[in-house]
What we know:
The protein has helices at residues 8-18, 35-53, 57-63, 79-88, 107-120, 122-141, 144-156, 284-320, 344-376, 380-414, 427-437, 444-455, 462-478, 485-508, 513-548, 554-569, 572-581, 585-588; strands at residues 66-67, 73-74, 159-164, 180-183, 189-199, 208-217, 228-233, 235-237, 243-246, 249-254, 265-278. It has 595 residues and is an alpha+beta fold.
Amino acid sequence: MPIYKAPVEDTLFVLYDVLKMDGYGNLPGFADAPRDLVEAVLGESARICEEVIQPLNVVGDTVGCKRNDDGSVTTPPGFKEAYDQYREGGWMALSFDPAYGGQGLPLALNAAIGEYLSSSNLAFGMYPGLTQGAMAALYVHANDEIKQTYLPKMATGEWTGTMNLTEPHCGTDLGLLRSKAVPNGDGSYSITGQKIFISAGEHDMSDNIIHLVLARIEGAPAGTKGISLFVVPKFLPKADGTAGERNPLSCGKIEEKMGIHGNSTCVMNYDGAKGWLVGEANKGLNAMFVMMNEARMSVGIQGLSQSEAAYQNAVAYAKDRLQGRSLSGPKAPDKPADPIIVHPDVRRTLMTIRAINEAGRALMLWTALQADISHRSEDAAEKQKAEDHMGLMTPIVKGVLTDLGFDNAVKAQQMYGGHGYINEWGMGQFVRDARITMIYEGANGIQALDLVGRKLGANGGRAVMTFFNEVGTFCAQNKDDAALGPMIGALSKGLKDLQAATMWFMQNALAKPDNAGAGSTPYMHLFGLVAMGYMWARMAKTAQEKLAGGADERMTHKLATARFFFEQLMPESGAHLARVTAGADSMMALPAEAF
């Protein structure tokens, strides 16, 4: 049976020692979250994830969800009871506005808990995760009546939420959607159409399911300019706020998936279902992007989570499995062989995963803190800088952490040798579950195109230049530090490669757009590598300071992992730069019929 222990100590190290979260007391909600409270909340969430939700991960994978003849869906055994504990603990609205029943605590705290939840059981975590995204979209764009009707019930977890975008004939290109909305004359609309790949579209864990559905109002313009967003409940709310009459929408089937079997991914049929417009007509994508951006951050966390869970299991196996002797002499002479963790190539694999996980966690929490500033600060300049950061880093967090999360799950599986291919060890589930994170909420190639095509040039390149300046200033301030010097040198080299790739796009992508498309994915990974390197440099500096103050050996471990990152992983920046600057010629040389 796979194991999992939430990395609470590492989360606290990043939040308080590296990112100085206790210095954000001017933001609403932070004064109500002193460190002792944060520690208690993280500790309790870890307990629930480890003791209640993680044991259901294999059950969810092997039993899965079942669609019944009446169109209802039964979740795996134990899921509903675990969700009841999650809901009753107030976890759904930890960071949500108290005006609608939330607790108003920092978004960064919710992000940390999101990692624990997804690490313990990715499929389970999608139910509350989607609800939180739907709440965010309604909070920003819905009118007061809709907010008062839905948000309090969603905040308690009594009602859950979904997002309905994709249709059988259109995925990323939502301008092709066919779902239609016809005014009923009473302020509501009749929604008709079919949506596919709808996670948590139907289940038995909540009293109502609130669908956010993209559709085109009759007579609206073609393409993305004619798309509107609607709130379409499974049960129509009654005047007393309870769930009433059933809306004509249903789960046509549950998709047969490679992984995340514990989540009901549904084909949803809307047969004249009653819905209400969210935001302005024909501007539905603007409203849905609130939920999509929330979801992209959450998916990045999911990629990290599967990497972390797989890593923990691989380490436990490597310490226990006896095979061969150390190249430098026996390390367990009292045993017939040494544990495989003594072998350098095993260490290379485990250190790679560990270094990426710790940097990815720091990058995720840094970005989550920027979300807090973006949503809560009253300082216009500070708020703008945070919004710039979010726009720039969201595709990187989503694309890089999920690509690497899947790679790391495969690496962790490899540690088991043949046992990794046997279901009872559980490593195959991490690989299969991690695979979806690279695809949904905009496949990673789309994230790379978004980064290169939209985010780099936004506001005259303001966000990317801010990032360059911040990392460059840090390098300049610490280059003469004897202990940090080699790390700073490697980070500086990575930054120069990233700047060179950015300049190459400026000089070669406008006249020939295929150059941008060809280099977008290696550029995204180059940017992610430098961003994680910056996180490691900051963590190493903090660890060094804490060691000088008498900290325990964990800080020595931090420095060793940082050194590994800069020596073994950061040199990839040069390869990424070479791929970017190779351009599109060889990639596009073959005619389509030659494939």
